[in-house]
Amino acid sequence: MESQPIATTGGGHPRSGRDHARVAVLPGDGIGPEVTAAAAAVLQRVAAAHGLTLELAERPVGGAAIESEGAPLPEATLRLCRESDAVLFGAAGGPRWDHLRGDARPGAATLRLRRELGLCVNLRPVRAFPALCGRSPLRPEVIREADFVIVRELTGGAYFGEHARSGSGMDESAHDTMVYTRREVARVVGFACRLARSRRGRLTSVDKANALWSGRLWRDVATEVAAQHPDVSVEHALVDSFALRMLQDPARLDVVVAENLFGDILSDEAAAIPGSLGLMASASLNPEGGPALYEPIHGSAPDIAGRGIADPMGAILSAALMLEHSLGLPQAAREVRQAVDRALEAGILTPDLGGTSTTEEMTAAVLRALPAPATLGAGS
Ligand code: IPM
Ligand code: MG
């Protein structure tokens, strides 16, 4: 099954017609370096086969940057990202830095990068892989036809509102404020509508309008924006019941749009459909242009870091999103997705998928499954 398009108009910086592009590689911590190396190898190969020369430049981020340069997001790392066409990101964080607080933490780099680059739209595609349908905790007949995209708002809400901790003893308290402006909601819902129009024309907007004031605003604005897209059929869902429905009948979904925190939670839950968090990719875009950032959603996984058994597919599929969205090579993206399907069908599986293969073996299987360069036309 060839899945529905994930790219759409607006956002990213399609580079078709160019023969050269710059990609910033930020491996970060834990399994980040292992999986970004795999994704970079696939990117290089596929780009070259399509006549695009990629210049990959690496910089530290997260805990690695704290160790080498004293800050989770050094200015030189941010500058490299700004000067690149796209960013390939691994993961930030690990137990070694758990004692740090606030902006000193490795994860602060992730949030700051999103804010600095204006990456307010986060795409997290969800589909069942034919070869793995039997491995999901959900029944194969429930997930087989699943193919949807979660559009998560990425620079607003509780992660970016005012935070504080005060008082002492049993009166000590903490708060995180969830603030949304009309502009922020309209921007991400508008993007989701355009994406839905390029796919099957269905949008599910998720909120908590029955309990949160920000949820009420979300629903009001989503309703207004949807009215400007008569060709898209829109439904509104409350996040709690939607969390169940998403797993009961995922095949009905096309595009799902949610605020930052809900999108974070729902996208990890959705990993039950492919069967492993290791398979989940993401693209973070600024709808006004500029470099986009591509990262697997699994994080640094310190328990398996350095053992060579991390699942590289989330990073490789993030590279496919980059080919489609930032590098103007949608055909190359399709080839990568097909190669991933073939590698999985051949049973080359890392331990998260129940196999015994290594990161390197799985990456080699994907490279082998790509079309031979000689059979490709120039460009795509
Ligand atoms: C993700 C991660 C991050 C997030 C963390 C590391 C801040 O969980 O990308 O989903 O919540 O956005
Ligand atoms: Mg998350």
Could you please describe the fold and organization of this structure?
The chain is of the alpha/beta class and 380 residues long. It folds into 2 domains: 11-120 and 279-380, Isopropylmalate Dehydrogenase, CATH 3.40.718; 147-272, Isopropylmalate Dehydrogenase (3-Layer(aba) Sandwich). 37% of the residues lie in helices and 17% in strands. It is built from 12 helices and 12 strands. The chain has helices spanning 32-49, 63-69, 75-82, 107-116, 140-143, 182-198, 213-227, 239-248, 260-270, 313-325, 330-345, 359-369; strands at 20-28, 53-58, 86-91, 121-127, 147-153, 163-166, 173-176, 202-207, 233-238, 255-258, 283-285, 292-294. The strands form 2 sheets. It has a 10-stranded mixed β-sheet, with helices on both faces. It has a two-stranded antiparallel ribbon with strand order 6-7. Strand 8, helix 7 (213-227) and strand 9 (233-238) form a beta-alpha-beta unit. It is globular, with a radius of gyration of 20 Å. Mean pLDDT is 94; it is low at 7-15 and 376-380. The chain binds 3-isopropylmalic acid (IPM) and magnesium ion. Magnesium ion (MG) binds at residues 264, 268, 297.
In short:
The protein has 380 residues and is α/β, with parallel strands linked by helices. Helix content is 37%, strand content 17%. The protein has 12 helices and 12 strands.
Q: N-to-C SSE series? A: EHEHHEHEHEEEHEHEHEHEEHHH
Q: Fill in the CATH topology of the largest domain.
A: Isopropylmalate Dehydrogenase
**Strand line-up in the sheet with most strands:** 2-1-3-12-11-4-5-10-8-9
Helix fraction? 25-40%
Query: What's the structural domain tally?
Result: 2
Biggest sheet record: 10 strands, mixed
- Architecture of the largest domain, CATH level 2? 3-Layer(aba) Sandwich
Number of alpha- plus pi-helical segments? 12
Report the span from N to C terminus: 21 Å
